[in-house]
Structures are given as C-alpha cells and as structure tokens.
Design a protein that fits this description.
158 residues, alpha+beta, 2 domains, 3-stranded mixed beta sheet, 3-stranded antiparallel beta sheet, 5 helices, 44% helix, 17% strand, elongated
Length: 158
Amino acid sequence: MSDIDPIAHLSGLKEDLTPSERIEELTLLRPALAELYQNDRATFAVAAGLVKEKLGIGRRDLEASLKLLLGDEKCDSKPLPLARFAELVDLVEDESEVKFLIRSSNNGTGLHVETEHIIDGRLYVPPGKSFYPGSCPAPSGSSVRTNRTRLLSSTATL
C-alpha cells in the first residue's frame, strides 16, 4: 500500500513545473497511481485528470505506463499490424490470408510462414489485404518456399 495520496499530492503541485520536475513527480506517484488503477477506477479517473492538468500526461499514456509497471500490458492489448522486423522476409498470401514469411532460426537458411509474431512480449500480425495495392498482391507462401528451395539447390551445384 502506497503512503502517498495522489490526489492530494497532485492538487498541491504548482502549475509551471519544468520537464524534469514533471518526470520526478510522475516517478514518485506511479506506484500510488498503479494501486488506484487496479483497485479504484473512479478515484483513478480523478487522479488521471489531475495528472493531465498538472503534469501534461494524457490518460491513455498514463494507463499504458501503468500497465507496463503492473505487468499486464500484453494481456489486454490488441495485436498490432506490422510489416517490418529483422526476421521478416516478405508478406505472403497463404490459405487466402496474409501471413509473415520468416527466416528460421537455424542460421536463417530455412523459411516458415506465421500468422502472428511476438517481439519483446508484444503480439504483431501482418497488415490485411486492404493494405496491398490492387496490382500488387502478396505472393503465395508455398510458391516462395518452392522457388527459394529450387534456387538454393541450383546454386549449390555451381
């Protein structure tokens, strides 16, 4: 249980804090705000309004930082569309669905198709078909794997 009453503390703050003072105040208040977030959402809403007014941090950003602190950031977040990360080779169409074509971990020589990918504990999905221009459909995952295997076997004999 936190010893600080965030509403009383925020109410007593002056309006013209420097950026470093704002960070210091947020760091001090974060445990008490996290406790309110978990146990009393109505009081948290009042405190969040004061955080916005006094520290200039919006409720969504405040809640996101508290979820990270509480360790449940992954639990209620929706998967985000993503088309760029180190292991990604391409986006492909597989079974009428856009999927990731990813280099396998065995020295990056193998390929596999995934419908979702986790990076730093966050779930990502490929962007939907609507993000592809009509004249540029995603290649088929099986054709990419077949052509890559054929290409690798032909260069191995050179």
